[in-house]
C-alpha cells in the first residue's frame, strides 16, 4: 500500500528553507561568531537530505540538477584560487586581503578574502556529503 | 616573491587533480592533463633543486605569518631531491598507466587520485610543521586507499580493509604523539620544537622518550619497520601494477623521510637510546626482508620483501648518524625510489606477457623479449649494488660509515643483504628468463609503449650510478641539516 506522507512533505517544504537560511547565517557569522564554512556546508547538506527523505532521489536530482563531484571540484578551485591571490600579489601563498568597502545597500562592510576560502570549504563539504549520500542511496 | 617556488611542487599536482575532477569521463583529456601536470611538476622541482643549491634552504611562511606561529614550508636539499625523484617516478607511472590501467578505472577518477597522492607525498617532504606533516600524511593515505580499492576486485577489497585499519590506527597514534609533544613543548613548528627541546637540558626528558617511541611507532608503521611491517606484503600484493609502483617507490619512503627529519631534529640529543633502538629494529627488518625475499617464487612478493630490506638498510645507516652514513642513506634512498618503481614496472610487463607472477609457471622469456630480459638484468645489478650502477655508491658509504662507527655486525649484515637481494632476483632471472620457452606467452600487449617508462627509469638509474660524483655536491647539501640541525633551525627562524 502506498502511504500518503502529505504532512512530512509539506513540513519539509517550510523547514528545509529555514535550515538553508540558518546555514547561510552560520556561513557569514564565521569570522566573528561560532560558525564557518564547514558547519554551514553540513547544515545545507542537511536541508537537502531532509528533502531527500521526504521525496525520492530522482525528484531531488531534478529539483537541484547538480553534479556533486563538480561542486566539490569548484569548491577546491575557490580555495586554491584565494591562496594563489597572495602569490599574484607578490606575497606568500594564502596571504589574505581585507578592507572596508561601501556597498550600495549594506553600507560600510568589512570584506575579507578568507570568506572566499570559506566558500570553497562550504562547496566541498556540500559536494562531498551529497556524493556520499547519493551514491549510498542509489546502490542496491 | 620567489619563495613561493617551494610551494609549487604541492600546488601543481593539486591544481591538476582539481581540474581532472571536473571532467572525469573524458579519457583523452584526463591522460593529457595528467601528463602535462607531471611534466610541469618535473620542471618546477628541478628548478627548486637548483634554486636551493644556489640560495641555500628556501622557506615560505604561508599567509605571511612569521615562523613559529604560521605554517612554514621548508625546501632544503633533501626534500627538493626527494620531490624531484617523486616527480620523475610519477611521470613514468602515468605514461605506463595509459596502456595498462584500463578504461573503467580511468573513468573513475584514477588520475586525480594519483595526483592527489603526489600532493600528499610532496607536502610531507616539504612541510616544516609537525601537524601539517600529519595532514599531508592523511592526504597521501586517503588517495592511496582510493588507488588501492579502485576497480573493486575481491583481493583488492580484502587488502584495503587491512591497509585501512592499520593506517587509521597509525594515524590515531600520530595524533596522540603530536599531542604528547605539544603538551610538553607547546609548539608545532619543527624548528621551534627542536630549539625548545635543546633548551630543556636534561630536565623532563622522560616524557620526551615516550614521544620519541610513539613517533617511531607511527613512522615505523608507515615505513614498514620490523615488528610493524606485517601489513605490507599482503596490501602491496593487491593493487594493479602502476599503483604498486607508486606505492613501492614512494609511500614507504615518506615514512623513512619522516623518521630522518623528526629524529635528526628532535630526539638525538636528549634521548640516548632512540638511535640504537632504531638501528636494532632496522637490522631485524633486513633479516626478515631477506627471509621473505628468498623464500618466495612469486615475482611481486620477492620485490615487496626487497622494499623491506632497503628500508632496513637506509634506517640502519640513519641510526649511526655520522656524515658518511647519512650521505650513504640519502644516496640509497633516491636510488631505491627509482629502481623499485622500475622493477615493479618490469614485473608488470612480465605479468602482461605471461599472465602470472609466479616464476614456476614460465621460462624462456629471453627468447621472446630480449630487451625485457636485459632490462631486468640491469635492474637486478643496480639494486644489488654492482659497482658502476646506482646501488653501489650508497651502500659503500653505508658500510664504511658502519665500520668506522664500530658497528661491525650491522655493516656485515648490510653487505650480506646485498648478496641475498642478488640471489632472490637472479633466481627469477635464471628460472623465468633463461631456459626453454614454456608457459603461456601472449604477445598482443602494447610492449614497446610499456617498455618506454621502464627504459627511462633504468637509464636514469644507470646515469645516477655512473655520475654519482656529479650528484655528490647536492647530496652533501642534503646531509648538512641532518647532521647539524642548527642549519635547519636558522633557515626557518631567520633571527
From TrEMBL, chain A:
It holds the Pfam family MnhB. It is a multi-pass membrane protein. The chain crosses the membrane at residues 12-32, 38-57, 69-90, 110-133. Its main location: membrane. Residues 8-131 form the Na+/H+ antiporter MnhB subunit-related protein domain. Keywords: Cell membrane, Membrane, Transmembrane, Transmembrane helix. It is found in: Cell membrane. NCBIfam families: PRK12573.1 (NF009223). Belongs to the CPA3 antiporters (TC 2.A.63) subunit B family. This is Monovalent cation/H+ antiporter subunit B.
UniProtKB/TrEMBL annotation, chain B:
The chain crosses the membrane at residues 6-23, 32-51, 71-96, 108-127, 133-151, 163-185, 205-232, 244-267, 273-296, 303-321, 341-359, 371-389, 409-429, 450-467. Its main location: membrane. Signal peptide: none annotated. GO terms for molecular function: oxidoreductase activity. It holds the Pfam family Proton_antipo_M. InterPro entries: CPA3_Na-H_Antiporter_D (IPR050586), NADH_UbQ_OxRdtase (IPR003918), ND/Mrp_TM (IPR001750). Keywords: Antiport, Cell membrane, Membrane, Oxidoreductase, Transmembrane, Transmembrane helix, Transport. It is found in: Cell membrane; Membrane. It is an enzyme of class 1 (oxidoreductase). Residues 129-419 form the NADH:quinone oxidoreductase/Mrp antiporter transmembrane domain. This is Monovalent cation/H+ antiporter subunit D. It comes from Listeria floridensis FSL S10-1187.
Amino acid at each position: 500500500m502506498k502511504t500518503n506522507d502529505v504532512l512530512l512533505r509539506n513540513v519539509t517544504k517550510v523547514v528545509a528553507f529555514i535550515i538553508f537560511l540558518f546555514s547561510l547565517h552560520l556561513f557569514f557569522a564565521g569570522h566573528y561568531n561560532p560558525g564557518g564554512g564547514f558547519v554551514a556546508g553540513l547544515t545545507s547538506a542537511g536541508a537537502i537530505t531532509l528533502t531527500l527523505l521526504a521525496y525520492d532521489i530522482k525528484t531531488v536530482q531534478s529539483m537541484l540538477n547538480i553534479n556533486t563531484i563538480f561542486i566539490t571540484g569548484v569548491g577546491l578551485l575557490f580555495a586554491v584560487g584565494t591562496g594563489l591571490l597572495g602569490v599574484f600579489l607578490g606575497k606568500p601563498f594564502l596571504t589574505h586581503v581585507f578592507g572596508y568597502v561601501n556597498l550600495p545597500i549594506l553600507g560600510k562592510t568589512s570584506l575579507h578574502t578568507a570568506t572566499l576560502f570559506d566558500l570553497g570549504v562550504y562547496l566541498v563539504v556540500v559536494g562531498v556529503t551529497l556524493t556520499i549520500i547519493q551514491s549510498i542511496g542509489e546502490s542496491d | 616573491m620567489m619563495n613561493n617556488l617551494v610551494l609549487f611542487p604541492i600546488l601543481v599536482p593539486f591544481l591538476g587533480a582539481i581540474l581532472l575532477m571536473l571532467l572525469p569521463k573524458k579519457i583523452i583529456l584526463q591522460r593529457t592533463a595528467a601528463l602535462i601536470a607531471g611534466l610541469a611538476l618535473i620542471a618546477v622541482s628541478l628548478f627548486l633543486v637548483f634554486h636551493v643549491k644556489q640560495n641555500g634552504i628556501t622557506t615560505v611562511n604561508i599567509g605571511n605569518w612569521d615562523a613559529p606561529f604560521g605554517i612554514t614550508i621548508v625546501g632544503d636539499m633533501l626534500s627538493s631531491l626527494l620531490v624531484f625523484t617523486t616527480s620523475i617516478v610519477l611521470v613514468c607511472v602515468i605514461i605506463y598507466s595509459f596502456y595498462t590501467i584500463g578504461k573503467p578505472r580511468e573513468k573513475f577518477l584514477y588520475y586525480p587520485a594519483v595526483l592527489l597522492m603526489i600532493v600528499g607525498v610532496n607536502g610531507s617532504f616539504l612541510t616544516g610543521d609537525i601537524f601539517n606533516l600529519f595532514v599531508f600524511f592523511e592526504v597521501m593515505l586517503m588517495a592511496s586507499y582510493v588507488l588501492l580499492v579502485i576497480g573493486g576486485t575481491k583481493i583488492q577489497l580484502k587488502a584495503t580493509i587491512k591497509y585501512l585499519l592499520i593506517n587509521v590506527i597509525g594515524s590515531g597514534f600520530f595524533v596522540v604523539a603530536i599531542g604528547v609533544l605539544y603538551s610538553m613543548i607547546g609548539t608545532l613548528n619543527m624548528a621551534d620544537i627542536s630549539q625548545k627541546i635543546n633548551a630543556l637540558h636534561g630536565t623532563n626528558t622522560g616524557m620526551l622518550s615516550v614521544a620519541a617511541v610513539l613517533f617511531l611507532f607511527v613512522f615505523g608503521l608507515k615505513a614498514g619497520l620490523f615488528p610493524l611491517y606485517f601489513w605490507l606484503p599482503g596490501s602491496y600484493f593487491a593493487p594493479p601494477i602502476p599503483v604498486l609502483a607508486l606505492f613501492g617507490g614512494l609511500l614507504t619512503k615518506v615514512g623513512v623521510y619522516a623518521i630522518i627529519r623528526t629524529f635528526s631534529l628532535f630526539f638525538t640529543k636528549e634521548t640516548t637510546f632512540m638511535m640504537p633502538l632504531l638501528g636494532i629494529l632496522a637490522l631485524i627488518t633486513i633479516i626478515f626482508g631477506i627471509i621473505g625475499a628468498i623464500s618466495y617464487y612469486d615475482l611481486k612478493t620477492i620485490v615487496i620483501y626487497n622494499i623491506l630490506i632497503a628500508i632496513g638498510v637506509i634506517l640502519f645507516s640513519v641510526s649511526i648518524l655520522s656524515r658518511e652514513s647519512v650521505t650513504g642513506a640519502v644516496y640509497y634512498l633516491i636510488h631505491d625510489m627509482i629502481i623499485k618503481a622500475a622493477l615493479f614496472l618490469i614485473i608488470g610487463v612480465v605479468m602482461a606477457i605471461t599472465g602470472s607472477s609466479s616464476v614456476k609457471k614460465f621460462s624462456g622469456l629471453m627468447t621472446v623479449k630480449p630487451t625485457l630480459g636485459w632490462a631486468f638484468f640491469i635492474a637486478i645489478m643496480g639494486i644489488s649494488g654492482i659497482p658502476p650502477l646506482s646501488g653501489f655508491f650508497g651502500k659503500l658509504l653505508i658500510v664504511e660509515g658502519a665500520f668506522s662507527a664500530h658497528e661491525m655486525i650491522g655493516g656485515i649484515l648490510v653487505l650480506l643483504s646485498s648478496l641475498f637481494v642478488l640471489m632472490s632476483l637472479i633466481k627469477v632471472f635464471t628460472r623465468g628468463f633463461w631456459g626453454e620457452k614454456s608457459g603461456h606467452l601472449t604477445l598482443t600487449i602494447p610492449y614497446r609503449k610499456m617498455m618506454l617508462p621502464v627504459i627511462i627509469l633504468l637509464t636514469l638509474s644507470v646515469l645516477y650510478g655512473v655520475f654519482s660524483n656529479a650528484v655528490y655536491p647536492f647530496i652533501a647539501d642534503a646531509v648538512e641539516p641532518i647532521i647539524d640541525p642548527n642549519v635547519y633551525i636558522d633557515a626557518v627562524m631567520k633571527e
